[in-house]
Every structure is written in structure tokens, then in C-alpha cells.
Amino acid sequence: MLQYFPHSINIITFVHIYTKTNMKPMKKTSALLLVAALTGIPATSQDIVTEEMTTRIYDTFSTSLNGEGSAYEENTEIPAEQISATRDKVWSIWKSAVENFDEEKLFEVTELEKREKSSWKLPAHLEANATMPFYWGCNAVEVEPDTKYPLFLYMHGSGDKNQEWETGIGLSLRRFYSPGIYFVPQIPNTSEYRWATRSKQWAWEKLLRLAFLTDEVDANKIYFFGISEGGYGSQRLAAFYADYLAGAGPMAGGEPLRNAPMENVANIAFSLRTGALDDAFYRNKLTQKALEVADELQKQHPGYYNHFIEVIEGDGHSIDYRPTTPWLAEYTRDPHPDYFFWENYDMYGGRRTGFYNLRVIEPSLTNDNQGRACYEMTREGNTVTLDVKKVTYTTVYAPSGIEIDFTKKYETITKGKVRLYLNEKEYDLTQPVKVVLNGTEIFNGMVGTNLKTMVESCAYYFDPERLFPAAIDIDIEEMSATPTAIDTVEAEHGKDMATVVYDLGGRRVEQPVEKGIYIRDGQAVMVGQ
Questions:
Q1: Predicted local confidence at residue 479, as pLDDT
Q2: What is the rounded distance in angstroms from the CA atom of residue 99 to the CA atom of residue 366?
Q3: How far is CA 405 from CA 75, 254, 255, 258, 402, in A?
Q4: Sign of CA dihedral 234, 356, 77, 44
Q5: Nearest-CA neighbor of 445 among 418, 422, 468, 461?
Q6: Are residues 334 and 182 in contact, defined by beta-carbon separation less than 8 angstroms?
Q7: How confident is the model over 51-63, as a mean pLDDT?
Q8: What pLDDT score does 83 carry?
Q9: What are the tens digits of pLDDT across the range 148-175?
Q10: What is the pLDDT of residues 324-338, one digit of tens each?
Q11: Per-residue confidence at 47, pLDDT binned at 50, 70, 90?
């Protein structure tokens, strides 16, 4: 676990105890204010997050969990030496907000052998009358204290749901990787026997959010896998949620790659194993196609696209399930990779708005009918290269309407807005950061670290590895335009050089107030408040 600030331990622990042990808990904001008064802990010159800020951050997180989208507005600078401690404190406030949020939780991790189970009611507007039962526990003989375990989400096949669910818990106890923590759900409704629909996306995001707060779960060793229908689901989810995963392992499946672009799994361990005789819905051919694409991507990007894709000779729909999870468990997530490719696609009406350290503020494309927006990022030192493209598919071979082969065409996109988050562990934020967009340098300057960005990214990703202290906003359309009349600021401006800049339309601006990218002396700079 992260080592929390001593002050935040006192405040947050008291609030948690108070609200959980009283029949009528006070409002969270009032509780925090009371705690601050009762503890009497004075702020010191080393504290970036004061007691008053703690209250406001807590309220921001609470409204975010309620889906109200409140933003934290205080743009407090974080000195370099305080980034780590501030991150720990913000995370502790987030943890308290989640613990006090009124929702069905995960219960304490115990031995899976006890077969303890619970359920979550899924939102009715996403799936009517949907309750998802699940087993949850560790398949070790005994759960060791102060030990981090990998987490496996297992998705069962599409037979009788009671029988399939029981098979899943049995396999998790006897045949899959041990020791590990397993979340083994049962499909809520057989009328919607798919593991990647909007209601399930809601469930998996909730699982990730709660698992990140569980002392027993290793946040960088989370794996999605499944068999048959669960194989289809885990393959789709692997491409959709790759930035949260260390690996994925669909078995006896095989999705058309338009539904699960292989390009997205550059940084995870990806296993797909299907019998050579498993020709229903062309599972064998689709697995072979995935192997060919993964091999090619691995050649183009050495060190990425680690895969264990196999068409198993002599096997049909039933295969040996044992090799997948031990292979996956060897891999650990890199939450801040130097390279990723993100094809942003619609999945049952759901669409991600962020991937690794990139967040879409304004979409470059709004639906798949226009093609799909792709974001390819590479980092070398303090230089970020971002290519934004539209991809369109052309079907080559689709027997029975199942697309097996296709071609892809890429074109540069010159619209949309994105936010590039920066971490002090990967970037030297005491030095300028350079951004190259679609082959053109559009930014080269210092980037400040601030509390607003850290709180925002915590609420957005709910990931302990992605509380970012800095960010650069990129307006792709403006950055793609050729600036006019601003090659350099004329020498006669003299003393004005420090305050006079030009906006990207070529207009002279003195002492800009609005924060953004401007041109000063022929260089792109970030200025304004």
C-alpha cells in the first residue's frame, strides 16, 4: 500500500469510524470539518494539502462518484520535493470518499475455498432486472497478511449459467494460477449473454475502482480471462481496458479484430488459445488471424506485443485451460509505457475517453461510421510524439457475415482536443517538455505541477498509479494550423519580450490571462492562469 501522510491517516480514519459506527452518519463535508477541529492538527509549511483543501477535495471526489462531475478548481502549485507526499495524501482522501460512498462493496478477501459470494445490482438504465452474483476470494490455502496477490477476473461460457458459474469456481480453485485472488461472476441475464455490454463495463470499472483500494490486490497484476463466450468478452475487454491490465487470456474464443483491435494491447501480455478443430463461428480462423497480426506488430515494435496465441492441433472447443493463467501471471503492468497505440472504438454503445496518460477532451471523431480515431504516442526522454489518425476498415473476407480479413487505411486527423498527463517519474519536469504532433513540433517549454491536475486525474482514472501532477492541453486543430505573422517577436519590443506573445491566429496579446499555448520569440510556450 501507499504510505499515507500521517495527518491524513488521523483525519480520514476518524471520519471512516464515525460514519460507519453511527446509525445516522453526518454529511461527509461536515464530518471532515468537525474532524479538523477535533484533531487540532496545525498545517505546517511542508503541507500542500491543508485541512480546508482536504474538505474540498473530498467533496469533489464524492460528487464525482455520484456522477455529477464536479471539478476541483484550486490550481495550487506542488513543489517537486512534495509531489510524492501530496500524491499519497490525495489518494488517502480518495480512498475515504470511496469507502463512504453508498454502494454495494467487495467483502473482505478470504479463502476462495469457503465459496463466499455476494452480488451487485447493475444500473437499470444499462440492463433491466440485472443482478450479478459473484464469488470473491483467494485460492491460496490461507490468505497471508501483508501480501499482495494478482487479481483474475474470470468470465464463464454460455451454457446453463448455474452450471457454468460452478464450473468457473471449481477451475479457479483447482486449475488456474495460485495463489491469486479471483472474481468469478455469473451472467445476470441469459437474454444478454455478453460480457462486454454497457452494464458489464459498469461492473468491471467498479471492480477495478474497489480492487485498487484493497490491501491484498497488486494494482499492477490484474488479468481478465475467460472461456468460450467468456473468451469473446475477455478479448474485447483486453483491447478496451488495456491500460488497467497486466494481461488478458481468452480461451476457446476468437473475435473479429474490428471488435478487439490488436494494436491496443502493445503493453500487456495477451494469450489466445483455440482448438484447430473449433470451427464454429470461425473461432479457429479468427485466432489464426490474431496470431498473424500480433506477429507483425511485434516485428514492427520490438519489445511490445508479447503474446501467446496458439491454434492447438487436434483440439476442438475443449482445450487444456491450465497454461493460460500461469503465463499471464509472469507479467506486470507498466502504467506509464513509452509507447502505446489506442484505436478508440465503440463497444455496445460505450466508449473510453482516456487511455494510459492521454485523455480526450473533445473527440476527433464521434462515431465509428466516420472511421475511428487512433492515437499513437511515443516518448523519448522529455519528447512526446503524438500521431492522431483516422482508420477506416475495408472487409476482404467475411464468410457468413463474420469478418475474418480486412485492410486498414490511416489518414491524419486535424481536429479534436486532448490532454496529455505527465508524471515526474517518467519526465524531468525541471526541464522543458517537447511535444511533436503529427510530425510538427507544437510545444517546447516548462510544464508546472499543480494540485488541480492531480485531483482531476485521480477522480478520472481511480488508479493509484495515475495521479498525475502535470498536464498539457492540445487543441489538434489549432496546433495543426500554420501560424501567421509570428515567426519571431520583433527586437524593437524590447522590454515587452517578457509579456508580449502571439496567439495561434497571429494576434498580439499582452499579458495573456487565459491559459493556453502561445508563441513567444518563435517558440511555443504555455502561459496564462
A1: 85
A2: 35
A3: 50, 13, 12, 10, 9
A4: positive
A5: 422
A6: no
A7: 95
A8: 97
A9: 999 999 999 999 999 999 999 999 999 9
A10: 999 999 999 999 999
A11: confident
**Which run of H or of E encompasses 209?**
helix 198-211
Cβ contact 196:250 at 8 Å:
no
| Secondary structure (H, E, C), 367-420 | CHHHCEEEEEEEEECCEEEEEEEEEEEEEEECHHHCCCEEEEEEEECCCCEEEE
- For residue 343, give the H/E element and its range: strand 339-344
The cell 489518494 sits on which residue?
A: 91
Cell numbers standing for residue 89: 495524501
Helix (H) or strand (E) holding 257: none
Task: Write out the three cell numbers for 448.
Answer: 508546472
Write the pLDDT tens digit of every residue in 443-463: 999 999 999 999 999 999 999
Report the C-alpha gap between 463 and 320 in whole angstroms: 34
- How far apart, in whole angstroms, are the C-alpha atoms of residue 264 and residue 256? 14
* pLDDT band for position 25 (cuts 50, 70, 90): very low
- Please check whether residue 232 is in contact with residue 477, taking contact to mean a CB–CB distance below 8 angstroms: no
Q: Residue 140 corresponds to which cell in the numbers above? A: 491460496
Long-range pairs of 169-175 with CB within 8 A, sequence gap ≥ 24: 169/112, 169/115, 169/135, 171/321, 172/112, 172/135, 172/139, 173/112, 173/113, 173/139, 175/321, 175/322
Consecutive H or E run containing 250: strand 247-251
Question: What pLDDT, in 10s, does the model give residues 269-287?
Answer: 999 999 999 999 999 999 9
What CA–CA distance (Å, rounded) separates 286 from 309? Answer: 11
Alpha carbon 132 to chain centroid, angstroms:
23
Nearest to 156 by CA among 127, 178, 137, 176: 176
Whole-angstrom Cα distance, residue 1 to residue 4?
Answer: 9
Say how far apart CA 344 and CA 5 lie, in whole Å.
Answer: 37
Query: Max Cα separation, the chain?
Result: 82
Contact yes or no for 207/182 (Cβ under 8 A): no
pLDDT surpassing 70 at residue 355: yes
What residues contact residue 518 under an 8 Å CB cut-off, 6+ apart? 501, 502, 503, 504, 509, 512, 524, 525, 526, 527, 528
The whole-model pTM stands at 0.85
Q: Report the distance separating Cα 1 and Cα 407, nearest Å.
A: 46
Q: What is the pLDDT of residue 528?
A: 61
C-alpha cell at 101: 460512498
How many residues would you count in the chain? 529
Q: Strand pairing partners for 133?
A: 119
Task: Give the H/E segment covering residue 94.
Answer: helix 83-99
